[in-house]
C-alpha cells in the first residue's frame, strides 16, 4: 500500500514539474503567431443573451498585417479587405458597401489578444480539455485594469486558440476556429475585390457619414457647440466623422482606440450595471461594456460619450478637460 502511495505521489510530482505554466503557454502562443504570415479555415461567432442565441459561420482567410477574405454562404455575404479598403458584398441583393479601414484591426486575427495577454491580463491555467477532438490547454484571462475576463482553449500541438469565450454587458461571445491551416502562401490577389457588373455601390456617404481632417472642420457641419478634450491620455487624433447629427472623434495609441461621440441631448443613457459619477459639477454614468470603459455625461445641451480601454479615473480626467 505504501509503495502504491509513493508511486502515485511521484507521478503527481512529475506531472506538476512537467506541466506548463500559464505564462509559458502565453509565450508559446505569441511565438506561434509571430511565425505565421497567413492562416485560413472556418470561424464561427455565437452571441448568447437574454433574447436568444445568434451564430454566424464564415470561411475565412487572413494575411498579415490586415487582409481578410470571409464568406458566409448561408447569408450570401462576402467580406474582403486589402488592409486599406473593405468591400461587403450582399450576393442576394447584388449590393456592395465600400469603406476605408486603414489601420483598423480586423477579425479573424487573434493576434491582438495574444500580444496583449501578459501585459493587460492576469493569466491562469485552468486545466486540459478536448475541443473538436483536439487536446487543449484551458487558460483564464482577467483584465488587470477592468472587470473583464475570458477563457481560451489553446491547441497543445499547434499553439493557436480553438475557442475563445468572453462575457460582458450580459452577453456571452464564443469564437471558434476550425480546420485551420497556416502559411499557405495565399496570393494578395484574393484580397482585391472586383465589383460585379450591375452591382449597386454604397459608401459611407450614402449612410450620412462624412469624414473631416479636424474637429474644427467637422464642427461647421453640425448645429451644436462641439467640445474638444485638452487631455487625451497620450492618444493622438486619428479621424473625425459626422454621422447625421452626431460627431465621432477617434484617437489612437499603440493600436488602442479612444472614441468620443457628441450629439444634442439632455437625457443620460441607461446603461446596465452602471454607476453614477461626477464630471465637475455635472452628473454622468460609467459602465464597462465589452471590455471597454464607457463614460457618458451632458454639458450645455450636448450629450458626450467617451469609451476606450482606460480606467474610470482616466476617462473622467479626459471628460473634465473638454472645452468648447
TrEMBL record:
Gene3D superfamilies: Lipoprotein localisation LolA/LolB/LppX. Residues 234-322 form the DUF4367 domain. Pfam families: DUF4367, LolA_like. Residues 76-166 form the Uncharacterized protein TP-0789 domain. CDD domains: LolA_like. This is Outer membrane lipoprotein carrier protein LolA.
Amino acid at each position: 500500500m505504501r509503495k502504491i502511495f509513493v508511486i502515485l505521489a511521484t507521478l503527481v510530482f512529475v506531472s506538476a514539474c512537467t506541466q506548463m505554466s500559464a505564462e509559458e503557454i502565453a509565450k508559446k502562443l505569441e511565438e506561434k503567431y509571430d511565425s505565421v504570415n497567413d492562416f485560413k479555415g472556418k470561424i464561427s461567432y455565437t452571441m448568447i443573451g437574454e433574447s436568444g442565441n445568434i451564430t454566424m459561420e464564415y470561411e475565412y482567410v487572413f494575411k498579415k498585417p490586415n487582409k481578410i477574405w470571409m464568406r458566409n454562404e448561408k447569408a450570401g455575404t462576402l467580406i474582403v479587405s486589402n488592409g486599406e479598403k473593405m468591400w461587403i458584398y450582399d450576393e442576394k441583393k447584388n449590393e456592395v458597401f465600400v469603406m476605408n479601414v486603414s489601420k483598423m484591426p480586423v477579425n479573424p486575427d487573434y493576434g491582438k489578444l495574444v500580444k496583449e495577454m501578459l501585459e493587460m491580463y492576469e493569466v491562469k491555467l485552468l486545466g486540459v480539455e478536448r475541443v473538436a477532438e483536439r487536446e487543449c490547454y484551458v487558460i483564464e484571462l482577467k483584465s488587470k485594469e477592468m472587470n473583464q475576463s475570458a477563457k481560451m482553449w489553446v491547441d497543445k500541438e499547434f499553439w493557436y486558440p480553438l475557442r475563445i469565450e468572453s462575457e460582458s454587458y450580459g452577453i456571452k461571445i464564443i469564437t471558434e476556429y476550425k480546420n485551420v491551416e497556416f502559411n499557405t502562401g495565399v496570393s494578395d490577389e484574393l484580397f482585391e475585390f472586383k465589383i460585379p457588373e450591375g452591382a449597386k455601390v454604397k459608401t459611407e456617404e450614402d449612410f450620412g457619414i462624412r469624414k473631416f481632417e479636424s474637429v474644427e472642420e467637422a464642427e461647421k457641419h453640425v448645429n451644436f457647440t462641439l467640445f474638444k478634450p485638452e487631455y487625451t491620455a497620450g492618444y493622438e487624433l486619428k479621424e473625425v466623422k459626422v454621422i447625421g447629427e452626431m460627431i465621432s472623434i477617434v484617437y489612437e495609441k499603440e493600436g488602442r482606440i479612444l472614441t468620443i461621440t457628441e450629439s444634442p441631448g439632455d437625457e443620460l443613457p441607461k446603461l446596465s450595471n452602471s454607476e453614477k459619477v461626477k464630471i465637475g459639477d455635472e452628473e454622468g454614468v460609467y459602465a464597462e461594456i465589452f471590455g471597454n470603459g464607457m463614460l457618458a455625461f451632458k454639458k450645455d445641451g450636448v450629450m458626450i460619450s467617451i469609451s476606450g480601454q482606460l480606467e474610470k479615473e482616466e476617462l473622467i480626467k479626459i471628460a473634465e478637460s473638454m472645452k468648447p
